[in-house]
Structures are given as structure tokens and as C-alpha cells.
Amino acid sequence: MTCSTKIEILASQILQKLSITGAWRTRFLLHLFGLWPALLGRHNFVNLGRQGDFIEYTYRKHFDKPFDWLAFNLILVKEQASDELIIGVDPSYIPKAGKHTAGVGRFHSGKAGRRKPGIEITGLAAIDMTDKTAYHLEAVQTIDREEGESELAYYARIIEERAEELLKVSKYIVADAFFSRNPFMGRVVAAGFHVITRARKDISLRYYHQPKPGVRKRKWDGKVDLAQLDTAVFSRVDDLETPERCVWQGVVNQKSVKLEVKAVIIQELDNEGQIKEIRTYLSTDTSLTAAEIMRKYAYRFQQEFLFRDGKQFVGLEQGQGRSKEKIHFHTNMALTTVNLAKIAHYLDQPASHRVAFSMSDITTAYRNERLALHIFRKCGIDPHTPKMQAVIKELKVFGARTA
Question: What is the mean pLDDT of each run of 10 residues along the chain (403 residues)?
């Protein structure tokens, strides 16, 4: 297939740099990388067996075998991304049932705003702030938690176990307000990272005591009132302010995690100049400016597009596997396909020529081309003639949103 060749060539280049034993395993993976974005219908074993080159049992067997998705995607990031990277951490709920399915429980669904039965994966992503995009690194299912281990402790363990590899990408971990407390922050900082996050509404910050002659020595100098800031500690950030917004920055102590943090406090004002809302952003790297902290945190949302594209277009939520090995393979296969498609069909173009990335159009082109080649083959038509290549080129964009 002409269209899938770009993904297959890219995947082949990465696989050659990994320690994969056996030509058969490599052949299967290359076939799967080409088939996955072209699959019609649901992304499950039944459809793979119907539309792929192997029987259903072969796909089930290979999904049970381990594959180093983190190493594969790290090579992609190293070769394709800029040096301006941060690491995003974000759990994602996946609906799934079955009393024999590994890891089924009740997990928070952001869409529903409550806990629902299913499974959960924690996505690790390298976010490129130059190209304004996110690359999937690895999805880890929430499973096999130790007795008494909290969710935050489990998420911290995921980072700790991969710290050596992740530190090669970036020392900055960016996460939402749920992660702005211990044990996550303390353990991740101890592993060598800096955390950038938004604070919870009940955040407790305290001033460091400024020694004065004749005053008893003490470590803290009172709690930070977010509406009445001490101007000896906090300074205004004029570059980020608007008539409806006051922005302050200062170095204080976060009481709940016992860490020194740079706090960026945004006070939203009403028409009368009164504070109507306060948002606080934190960074354990106190050398960052307020603008740098806000910029890094804003790019966290690029990871959401990975999950969106994975769920809508490449079957992230459609796996039939029940074992944790099959679930791990399926979720990472779906999200890695987004990586490959993005690099092969979007980032390969000069920045000035790029239009908005559309996973929908890429999968449409793959499916159209695969179907056209199948029909030509059944009719005994050579698809490699110039005339047929022109027909295929036209058919590929049939139904595309940007055609």
C-alpha cells in the first residue's frame, strides 16, 4: 500500500534499533503497524483476523507477548522531537467489563465526572513545546497495586520505575491539580524530576521567616492569603497581566508536601476590580519565571489530543483482550499508531506548509486505499500502473474532511 508504506518504513527503522529476537516477530509487528490505521470497523481480534494476513489466534498470541513500547517511542522522540520537551502524566478511563478481565474496578471518568466501572491507564507523553504536539511514550494500566498503596503512590511508582529513561527526555513532569500533593510530588522530586502543576483550591502555602534582629528565630512566617499577598515576597508579573487579571509570583513553602515551590497566583477581577476567582500554579523548580511555568503547564493539554485521537480513530477503547498483557499491548498499539501517523504524515512537512493535524483524514486515506487495492486485486487489475496510481490517489481523499 502506498499510503501505509510511510508508517511501515518509519516503524521498520525503529524496530531495527530495538533488540527484537526473531524475524517472525518483526514481520508481525510491521504488518500490524500497517494494518492498524486501515482497519475497517472495530479494532479487535475478530476484525484483525478478518482483514489481516493472519488468523485471529495469531493476533491473540502475539498480543500476549511483551514489547518495549517505551523504548520504541523514546527512539521516535529522540529522532523527531525538538529539545524543548516536558513529560505529561495523565490517567484515562476506559470502559470495560467482564469478571475475568484483569484490573477491572471503579475509576474516575472525566467525561462523566464520577467513578465508573472499567479499567484505567496512566499515559506518559513527551510534549514538544516547539512543534506544539505530544508524543505517546507508554500507557500503564492501573493494576497490581500493593496492599494499602494509594492511587497517587501508584502513579509515583510508575515514574520511579522509569525514571532513568524519562530523565533522558526531560526533568519536568507536568500534571493536573490531582497530583499536587504527596506522596506523588515528594517521591517524583526525590527521583530527580521537577513537578509543574496547578494547585488545588484548598492549597496551604506558607511564608519563610525573614530573620530580623531581636526577633525569636522561627522557620515559618504565617500562611499565605491568596487574596492579600505579602509584597515583600510576591512580585507582580506585568507581562502576563490584563485589565481583568493580576498575576503574582513568589517562592514559598507548600505545607502538604514540605517543598519549596515557585507559586504563580492569578487573581481574576470583576468589573469593579474585585477578586472573583484565584488560580494557583506551582513549580518545584524555583528558577523558572512565571511565564515559563504558565507556558509549560498550558502545553499539558496536548496530551489530551493523544487520548482523543486514540479513542475516536484507532480503537483505544475497543480491545477484546482480558489479560493485562493483551490490554497493555492493545492500548499502547493504538496510541503509538497516533505517533507514527503524526510523524509520517504531518511532522514530515515544513512547518510553514502544515495544516491542522487530522487523524481522521489519515485513517480515512488508509482505509480507502486498502479497500481500493483489495478490489483491484480481486478484479485482476495492476494497481502500479500510472493510471491506477492516479485513481488511488483520488480515492484516498474520498470522504476526507480536508479534501
Answer: 70 90 90 95 96 96 97 95 96 94 94 94 97 96 93 98 98 97 97 97 91 66 93 96 96 96 97 94 98 97 96 96 97 97 85 82 90 87 85 81 62
Residue 135 contacts residue 126 (beta carbons within 8 Å): yes
Distance CA 27, CA 130 (A): 34
Write down the pTM of the prediction. 0.91
User: Which among 31, 11, 151, 13 has a CA at the least distance from the CA of 89?
Assistant: 151
CA atoms of 217 and 234, how far apart (whole Å):
22
28-32 long-range Cβ contacts below 8 angstroms, 24+ apart = 28/54, 28/58, 28/62, 29/67, 32/59, 32/62, 32/333
- Give residues with Cβ within 8 angstroms of 194, minimum separation 6: 171, 172, 173, 283, 284, 285
SS3 124: strand
Sorted by where each starts, the structural domains of the chain and their CATH numbers stand as 69-198+301-347 (3.30.420.10), 205-283 (no CATH), 358-403 (no CATH)
How far, in Å, are 7, 272, 276 from residue 137 at the CA level?
17, 47, 39
Torsion of CA 89, 93, 98, 100, to 10 degrees: 10
Q: Which residues of 374-390 are buried (b: 16+ CB within 10 A; e: fewer)?
A: eebeeeeeebeeeeeee
